[in-house]
Amino acid sequence: MSAENRRRVIVNTDAANEADDQFAIVHALLSPTLDVRGLIGAHFGEGRSAQSQKDSRLEIDKLIDLLGGSDVTVADGAPHALPDETMPVDSPGARLIIEEAHATPDVPAGSRTEEPLYIAFLGPLTDMASALLLDPSIADRSIVVIWIGGPAYGDLVHVGASPEYNLGNDIHAANVVFDSGVTVWQVPASIYRLVNVSYAELEARVGPHGALGRYLVDQLIAWNARWHPRPIESRSLGDSPAIGLMLEPFSGVFRPQTPVRFTAAGDYEPSSKPQRIFVCEQVDTRFLLEDMFAKIARAS
After folding, report:
1. Tens of pLDDT along 235-245?
2. pLDDT, tens only, 19-75
3. pTM of the model
4. Domains of the chain, CATH where assigned
5. By Cβ atoms counted within 10 A, which residue in 2, 46, 66, 162 is the most buried?
6. Where's the Inosine/uridine-preferring nucleoside hydrolase domain (predicted)?
7. Residue 65 CB-half CA count within 13 A
C-alpha cells in the first residue's frame, strides 16, 4: 500500500496495566492503512507495579515477538506522572511525538489533502503533556489526540473508582493537554466500557488463531481472575475504540465540548482556555470488533 494511502499514527499504551491494550496494539499493527510511526510504553502509576513503564515496554516487546517481529519504532515514555502543570517529564516517547508532529506537512485547514498525525493514548496523557511543555509549537501542528479516558459527562453516572483510572494516573497531564488548544477526541468511560466481549466469544473468535490468539485470550482471563473482585466472564476492550477511530474516523459520533479541565478529585470544571475537544458519544463496535477478529485470524 502506498504511503499516501496510509494514515500516520502513534500509539501510546500502558500495555501491562490491564488486558485490553494488547488487543488494540495488535489491531493497529495488523491494519495496512495505519502507518504506525511508533509505539510508546507508558506508565500506569504504582498501584499495580513499582516499575509500570518498564512493564509496559516489556509487554509491547512480547506482542511484537508474537506477531513475528516488526520494524516499528518502540520508545519508552515517562516513568511517572507530571509533578505539576508546568514541568515536563522528558523521555524518548515525548521526543518521538515532537519529531512526528513536526513531520506533519503544513496544509490549508479544510484541504482535502489534509491528513493529521493521530496519536492514540490508551492510558495517561503524560507523554503528550510533556511533549507540549517541551515544545508548545506542536499544538499548532495538524495533530489529533485520541484519549481513552475521563469520566462520563452530564448526569451520567460514573461507575467505578473515582477519579477515572487513566485520568487519575496523571490529572496534571490531562489539564495541560486540554488547555493546550490541540485537537482532542475524548472517549470517556461511559463509551469505552461498552466494547464488551465474553470469554466464549474470545475463545471462538481469537483463541484458535496461533500463539498470538491464545496469548491474547489467556492473558485477559488471567487478569480478570487476579484483579476483578466480582463474578465475571467478559471484559471490555475499552482501548480498542482508539484504533477503530484511526482506521475510520466516521466510525464514531462526536459532539463539541464546551471548555473544561479537571479538579484534583478528577471531576470536570469550566475552563477559560480556547479548546478543540470533541467527545465521542457512540462507537461502531460491530466494525471495530469484526475487523480486529478478522485480522487476527488472517495473521495466524
Report:
1. 999 999 999 99
2. 999 999 999 999 999 999 999 999 999 988 999 999 999 999 999 999 999 999 999
3. 0.95
4. 3-299 (3.90.245.10)
5. 66
6. 9-285
7. 7
